[in-house]
């Protein structure tokens, strides 16, 4: 029998005196799809990234062999050739993984030149083809776009295009469909599956999405607190999980626990339009910028205690509409918070309004300052909106907020306060972002894919938390999502968008047929 494409034996990983992965072993054959599954902080991402020795501070022991070669013994030059060439990675957070000062196309071209030796012209053609293959519309124009000019889902697809551009033998995919809507998610999975068949591409998938595992993976390895507790064929393991932790994961699913909605209107939007400048081709671009309409004439009302879910495919304009509600992007039309108009008062009015409407962004790592500790990040809103609090009271409020979102270590919260965002997993960072938004007790919270980075058990915990807070404080939520399970669990009203237009709007009950995946 041929040796596995990737073989991990007795792998242990530690940071200083702290052991995070303990004696993990698994194997992946060419053309096979293996899913590493576990809750946030279980060690699955650290394990996968160690297969390319991407975590410099980690101390590794055991063995990691790729195509018969021991990776732990490789010299830096051999590792550089392996990374991005034979082994490619799709990172969880594309906004932080992509270079913000280089266009998407230039970043893909760079990879093709380094690993395939293509000319700039040939690499540009290949980059456009790569973007088109992952479902980015108008790829010939989007190849010139910078990461901030793309939606979250489009950035994720660009990251996938870059990873697949050099025809790798092994693809490490860290939550590759987190930011993608259902239609594009299926398209990406079908693409990865066709590549697997054509090129015998091995795929190591890191995920908390069990629906994705059932749909895609051949084998599953389940991790809990750095230990691999169970592994086997997907169908058998999902049908009859043996370990109690695996049983808990399989049985987890968002439940509908909505609070009773109120009738007092706290936010209204009237004929809201959002446009962005674009560069025109040729000589026209020297004299006049073009305009891209992201949202066109959107109108709706939001009541106290109500959750409005804005649903649509990636690039449909739902995040742009949410940013307009926050007055974080230029818009035309009228937006009222109660009886106050956004943009018609001075800075003092704008600051007061910002306490009433808070936001949880889609990409937590890019929205959390890397230079501040978690205590400073969560307390920042209190320093601005409640400056009279004492340091002791402020710290108590921070601890309370972190406890509300389920963030602790061995039941303790205080040891986490002095850490920085990069010391937490993706799901933990998302919980920190939610705590930061809720600590000032706003009337309205804009939630941009708030549970996309959370594992299934914590997802239900956070949804339940949001519902409890909504019920207690009559909070109103604007929830931007593509996850139909989350919509069914939270929505009072639903607004469906397509290419910048509101195509349907109504109560959740009247819209259920339109929400079927």
Describe the structure.
The protein has 517 residues and is an alpha/beta fold. The protein folds into 3 domains: 6-86 and 168-251, 3-Layer(aba) Sandwich (Rossmann fold); 100-167; 265-515, Rossmann fold. 38% of the residues lie in helices and 26% in strands. It is built from 21 helices and 20 strands. The protein has a 6-stranded mixed beta sheet, with helices on both faces. Helix 5 (120-133) crosses helix 7 (152-164) and helix 16 (374-385) crosses helix 17. It is globular, with a radius of gyration of 23 Å. The model has no long low-confidence stretch (mean pLDDT 87).
Quick one: overall form? globular
Distance between the termini: 42 Å
Radius of gyration: 23 Å
Q: Report the sheet-strand fraction.
A: 25-35%
> What class would the helix/strand composition place it in?
alpha/beta
Query: How many domain units?
Result: 3
Largest sheet: 6 strands, mixed
Please state the second-level CATH architecture of the largest domain: 3-Layer(aba) Sandwich
| CATH homologous superfamily descriptor of the largest domain | P-loop containing nucleotide triphosphate hydrolases
How would you state the average pLDDT, rounded?
87
DSSP helical segment count: 21
Query: What is CATH's topology name of the largest domain?
Result: Rossmann fold
């Amino acid at each position: 029998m041929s040796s596995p494409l990737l073989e991990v034996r007795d792998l242990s990983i530690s940071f200083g005196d702290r052991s995070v992965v303990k004696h993990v072993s698994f194997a992946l054959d060419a053309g096979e799809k293996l899913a590493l599954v576990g809750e946030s902080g279980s060690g699955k991402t650290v394990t996968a990234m160690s297969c390319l020795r991407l975590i410099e501070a980690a101390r590794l022991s055991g063995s990691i062999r790729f195509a018969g070669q021991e990776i732990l013994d490789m010299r830096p030059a051999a590792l550089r050739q392996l990374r991005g060439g034979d082994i490619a990675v799709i990172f969880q957070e594309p906004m932080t993984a992509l270079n913000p000062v280089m266009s998407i196309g230039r970043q893909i071209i760079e990879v093709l030149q380094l690993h395939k030796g293509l000319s700039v012209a040939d690499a540009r053609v290949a980059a456009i083809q790569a973007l088109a293959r992952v479902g980015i519309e108008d790829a010939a124009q989007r190849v010139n776009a910078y990461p901030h000019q793309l939606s979250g889902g489009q950035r994720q697809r660009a990251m996938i295009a870059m990873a697949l551009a050099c025809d790798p033998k092994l693809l490490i995919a860290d939550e590759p469909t987190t930011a993608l809507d259902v239609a594009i998610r299926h398209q990406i999975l079908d693409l990865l599956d066709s590549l697997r068949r054509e090129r015998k591409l091995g795929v190591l998938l890191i995920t908390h999405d069990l629906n994705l595992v059932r749909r895609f993976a051949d084998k599953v390895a389940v991790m809990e607190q750095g230990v691999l507790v169970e592994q086997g064929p997907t169908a058998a393991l999902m049908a009859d999980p043996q370990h109690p932790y695996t049983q808990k994961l399989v049985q987890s699913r968002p439940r509908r626990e909505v609070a009773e909605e109120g009738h007092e209107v706290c936010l209204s939007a009237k004929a809201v339009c959002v446009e962005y400048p674009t560069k025109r081709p040729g000589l026209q671009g020297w004299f006049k910028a073009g305009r891209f309409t992201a949202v066109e004439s959107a109108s709706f009302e939001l009541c106290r205690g109500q959750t409005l879910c804005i649903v649509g495919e990636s690039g449909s304009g739902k995040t742009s509409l949410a940013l307009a509600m926050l007055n974080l992007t230029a818009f035309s039309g009228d937006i009222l918070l109660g009886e106050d108009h956004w943009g018609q008062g001075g800075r003092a009015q704008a600051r007061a309004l910002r306490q009433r409407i808070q936001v949880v962004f889609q990409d937590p790592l890019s929205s959390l300052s890397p230079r501040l500790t978690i205590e400073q990040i969560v307390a920042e809103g209190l320093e601005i909106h409640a400056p009279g609090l004492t340091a002791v009271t402020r710290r108590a409020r921070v601890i309370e907020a972190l406890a509300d979102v389920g963030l602790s270590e061995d039941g303790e919260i205080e040891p986490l306060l002095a850490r920085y965002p990069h010391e937490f997993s993706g799901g933990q960072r998302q919980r920190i972002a939610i705590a930061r938004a809720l600590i000032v007790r706003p009337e309205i919270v804009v939630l941009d894919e708030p549970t996309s980075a959370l594992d299934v058990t914590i997802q239900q915990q956070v949804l339940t938390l949001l519902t409890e807070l909504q019920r207690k404080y009559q909070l109103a939520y604007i929830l931007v999502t593509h996850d139909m399970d989350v919509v069914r669990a939270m929505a009072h009203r639903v607004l469906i968008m397509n290419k910048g237009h509101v195509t349907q709007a109504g109560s959740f009950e009247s819209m259920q047929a339109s929400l079927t995946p």
